[in-house]
Amino acid sequence: MLEAQGTFQGFRLDPRRFEVAVPDASVLPDFRVRRTLEGKPVPPQSELIVRDDVGVDFGDPDNLVPSAVQLFRLDGDSGGIFFNCTGTLINPRTVLSAAHCFNSAGSETYGLPFENDSTILVAPGQSSEDRLFTFLGGSVPYSEGGMASSTDVVIHPAANQENIGLPFPWADVAFIALDEPITDVPTLPVLLSPLAELTRVIQVGYGTNGTGSEGAVNTGDPFLRRVGENMLGAIASPADLLDTAFPAFAPTRDTVAAESQAFYFTDFDNPDRTPEQQAGCIFEADGISCADLDAVRAIDWFDGDALPQEAGTAPGDSGSALIVADLYDFPVVSAVLSGGFDFFGLGSSYGDVSFYNPLYPFFEFITENTPYKYVSAQAGDGNWSDPDHWTQDLDPGFFIDDGSGNLVNAIPTGNEPGIFEAGPKLGTILGQDISGNSTAPTASIIGIDTSLPESSALLGPGSTGFVPNNTDGNPGTAFAAPAQYFDVMLNREGRTTVDIDVEIDKLSLDHGRAQFVLPTGRSFTTIIGYEQLSGLARIDGRLAAATTGLFGGLLEGTGTIASDVVANVGAGVAPGGVFGFGTLTVDGDYIQASGGALLIDAGRQGRRSVADLLAVTGDASLAGELIVTAPFRTRFGDEFSVLTANSIAGEFDATTLVANRPVLFAESRVEGNEVIVTVNARSLRRMFRGNRNLQSVGAAVDTLRFDGRFAEFVGLFDVIDGSGIASLVPTLSSLAPVNAFGQSATATNFSQRFTGQISQRTLALRGGNRAAAGFSPAGGAVNAIAQSGPSAPGQLGFFSTVSGSFLVTPEQRNTGMNALEEAAFTQAGELTLGADMRMTEDFTFGFAMTSVRNGMSAAGAQPRGDDTNVSGAAYAALEMGRGFTDAYLGFSRQDLGIERASAGDFRRAFGNARANAEGRQIFGGMRLGYAFGLLPGLEAGPVASVDYVSSDLGGYTEFGAGQFGLTVLDRNFTSVGAKAGLMASLDTGIGRKGRLSAFGSVAYSREVADTVDEVTAHFAGAEDVPFSIVNPLDPEWVSVTAGADFALGSRFTIGLSAHSDLGRGVLSNDEARVNVGFRF
Fold it and tell me: What percent of the chain has pLDDT over 70?
């Protein structure tokens, strides 16, 4: 019979660690890849103490627990490497394991290879074999396929020899700090609150393998990670287990100093046990007696049968995670394996008991001493070296249960209970409920001061007074100068300026108003990488990052980013900075996705075009947008390189020129190993297709540009292409010689004024109805004529008019100090003289001449030339009872002053363009009418007229505009206006001596000759590229005339008259006048 007697010499409390020297690889056959007889590779064998029906060939084929790692110990003196324990990666630099794996010596004996007495080597993977033997080939680091090395080992002070140094398994928790971050393995979150229920758990380890019946025989591959499942059997202390199994010695915390600290317990249930086998063991007060080995293996320490993948633990699994898989939304590590109870010396077979050190009693040690520190910058501006600029953040891998079964990222408050934590008591042991068991501590620990040493200023969330800069620590005194590695977040408003050389593990920028500034001459290394989600980064120094991910914000500068790859997913990259030229170097590959943008400033320095450059030493893959900003003037045809690389795949999805210059746009192309941007121009003809005149000017400009004459007219294009959205239309409009339309308007006005005077004269000669004056070309009876007509056949008559006018602006009017000085600014003058002879009682014939000068004010800018006109005409008037006929025929010679006002952006290039032109006219016309006597003094009747004017307008070449001057060609403008309408007049006495003569007319008018005034011009030196602009004239209009003369006695008269052409446009004649006469 097998017995476990109460002498306590029949069972062992077994730590599940072991050390077996790894043989020298140089004398071993190559067994890193196992092969079949056919020589083909096969999957590695498993190494798990599992159910017999699962077998040793079951490992972790689905990589369920990738965060589990195998630990080896390197002896610094001999160079020997030993199998050690299992650990869990909880962040890139920290492995969580058990203290007893390391505390055979003090924590300060551990460090980097061959610099300290011992080094812990770390290898993750479903098999650690490849990494181990790669390391053996020359201490190859993890990043090159070997193993990570410890820089520091942090053991809970209660278990550390250099501190309190309690024996196993008290406070069985430790950390390993790694010499380089492990980023290709997912980390496992940590649960820092106690479990409130018994649940399914995952067990994992790299330790000794075997089956439940055979035990830890290690027949499988020793390098494989093994994974199994179990039910959490109890939350209890070793004293609770021993009190239940051997009640005769209870309380064992007092009698044999059994540990009172709480642990998580599992047992390895035999799936094939029978009731008879279970009944084969008798539990007496002072011992256990079992009938045979099958009865021992059938013991059910904690309620529940074997799960489908039931597993137990064995040496080498120590420090492995107890993973809570089902309670929460994601798995968490709740404890680390300490050891097992083997009452019969069977070695990790069915019936074995494993116990895990929970993490929640040691939360303060865990949160204060993890080597990987999450920190962030305080709000506001500050230097990197300022300790007050930083605060420690909550580790995102720390969780607690909020009491309702939900995990929250938080840590417990207060001080940790540590080794004094004895609860909560949960579950049954050998069928006995332990929830009411005593929580009193083991006597040997009473009075021990377990307060934690302050290892540094970083003692958990909210800590300040430190500077983020990686350190491997300095071995010497436990908890003094520990290894620390930093994950830095800039997620508050403010600017952080690097004023020292820095190495950290990771940098993140994530605030719209946060700034990271790396000045020239500074080096900044972020081993894992740099991540930018928003904000502004200015890189003028050297930023070294394993990878750089740009997801938002703006990165600018003239420094270097040394990174395997810079992935621009959704940010803007601006070499040189915004509105400044410079080169940003990417020492690695550059990838720009569809959401990214490369921002380039471009312009000219002297005669050469310059632009920012993104210089990529590796390969570039392009998409997204290229935005070219031109804060300084660019020209059509400018080309510049904006990106260079070893090779370039793809191209930018869009290239945009941001310059407030609607004419220019940018195009990009990949040519060899560079991206070249060309500044091109839009067709002005197409841009202004809705405006006939601007389209014609634009077509001429297009011809000069696109037919290779850009350099010849570069000054012209600099102004046009430099025009903004608001100024482009006035700029281009100022090139259109619309002032030439003033030639025709002025010439027509000269003839209208002269023929209007002739109409007045013929009206007076026949004593006709003044309403008929509305049928002259001038259209109005508004001219005051000093006249005396021939009263009898053979007599001569004479008439004359003299006029002057002020046409100065209000600004110019104030240049004179008094009325005499004001008179010096008279700008227009007219003199008309005529003579006629009455040939018969009904017919009169005459001749008249006029001279007109329209001047410009001499104040201010240089004036344009005066408009002068000399005209002569013969005229005749015939009376036919109540009917009449008037006719005239004449000529004129004109000198016209031309001025084209600069507008838009041309105002900065020249003032006004001026010129002088000659003109010739032939004109004639006839008027027919009949007046019916309706009542005494009241007459009315029809009137019709036709007037002809042919104007030959001379061309001219402008001066005063330099290279922007135009040459306008000769042209002819002919007007034939026909009118038909009604006239009426009233002549009646007022009082004893006064008389009233009122008159009026209305006529429909139509232009039957030219209805469009067309001007053709060309730029100086571009005779072969003419353009034309047109001024459409209204072909029909209505003329209205009205007036009255008052005679008050024989000496005093006053006249009022007005005329308007309704709907005639620029040739309309709208006048009003008051005449006062007094006879001396």
Answer: 88
From the list 603, 530, 536, 545, the residue with the least C-alpha distance to 571 is 536
* Angle of helix 714-721 versus helix 692-704 axis, rounded to 10: 130
Cα(705)–Cα(637) distance, rounded to whole angstroms?
10
Select from 728, 694, 735, 688 the least CA-distant residue to 713. 735
Q: Residue 406 — φ and ψ, nearest 5°?
A: -115, 140
Q: CA nearest 779: which of 963, 587, 1001, 928?
A: 1001
Yes or no: say if 150 and 177 are a contact pair by the CB < 8 Å rule: yes
Strand-pairing partners, residue 190, are 333, 398
Over residues 531-561, the pLDDT tens digits come to: 999 999 999 999 999 999 999 999 999 999 9
Give the sign of the dihedral formed by CA 759, CA 760, CA 763, CA 768: positive
β-pair type (174-178, 94-97): antiparallel
| C-alpha–C-alpha distance, residues 425 and 850, integer Å | 126
Return all residues near 345 (Cβ < 8 A) that are at least 6 apart.
10, 11, 12
pLDDT at residue 807 tops 60: no
Taken as a whole, the chain contains a residue count of 1080
Q: Which amino acid belongs to residue 58? A: F
In a 3-state reduction of DSSP, which class is residue 542? strand
DSSP H/E element including 700:
helix 692-704
Tens-digit pLDDT profile for residues 815-865: 444 433 333 334 568 899 999 999 998 899 999 999 998 765 433 345 567
- Cα–Cα distance list, 396 to 392, 568, 1066 (Å): 12, 26, 79
Report which residue type is found at 1015. Answer: V
Give the integer Cα–Cα distance in Å for 918 and 900: 17
Give the list of residues 6+ apart from residue 591 with CB closer than 8 angstroms, or none: 565, 566, 567, 568, 620, 621
Q: Tell me the sheet residues that pair with 805.
A: 828
d(CA 999, CA 768): 11
| Bridge partner residues of 15 (DSSP) | 339
Radius of gyration of the chain (CA): 53
Give per-residue burial for 59-71: e unless 16+ CB within 10 Å, then b: bbeeebbbbbbbb
How far is 486 from 181, CA to CA, in rounded Å?
A: 11
Under 8 Å between Cβ of 1063 and 1036: yes
CA 362 to each of CA 190, 241, 445, 921: distance values in angstroms, whole numbers, following the listed order: 12, 22, 16, 111
**Contact (CB, 8 A) for 259 and 422:** no
